[in-house]
Structure formats: structure tokens, C-alpha cells
Amino acid sequence: MIKIELETGGSVWKVLTKPGVRVEAGDTLFILEVMKMEVPYEAPASGEVVAVHITEGDVVEEDQLAVEIAE
Predict the structure, then answer these.
(1) Domain CATH for 35
(2) CB neighbours of 12 closer than 8 A, spacing ≥ 6?
């Protein structure tokens, strides 16, 4: 299981995946807005998204669990 945690706090601008979706390494999963900049988060490996713990508009914190992918 791959757990994607946030590297910084910010606001969730766009969520581009959902549970059950197959992603490939490098696919953008979601985009955070951090200090007026868009920061995309990409899948580190291919697999199936099993959980998304954030929604658009959420204010999030560093180290918060965002997405889980099963390889």
C-alpha cells in the first residue's frame, strides 16, 4: 500500500482521482494551492486508488494522509 502524505499545508484546489481508478506512475492525483501557487501531487507508482482522504476546498496540514494506492 502506498500512502501519499502532504509535504506542506495549503488548500485543496482540485482532486483528479477517486477510489477504484487505476493510475499510472506520474499521473497527477490532486493539486494543492500553497501561497498562491499550484502544487501538483503525482502518483509515485502505478496501482489502484483505494482511498481519497481529501476533498476540494479542504484546508490541509503537512504530513496529512491524502491518498492511498494499492500496487
Answers:
(1) 2.40.50.100
(2) 30, 31, 32, 33, 54, 55, 56, 57, 58, 59, 60
Rounded to a whole number of angstroms, the CA Rg of the chain reads: 11
State how far Cα 15 lies from the chain centre.
7
Taking the C-alpha atoms of residue 51 and residue 31, their distance in angstroms, rounded to an integer, is 16
The pLDDT score that the predictor gives to residue 20 is 98
Give the HSE-up count for residue 57: Cα atoms under 13 Å, Cβ half-sphere.
0
Per the CB < 8 A criterion, the answer to whether 4 and 68 are in contact is yes
Residues 33-67 have pLDDT tens digits of 999 999 999 999 999 999 999 999 999 999 999 99
Could you list the residue range(s) of the whole structural domain that residue 33 is in?
2-70
Query: Total domain count for the chain?
Result: 1
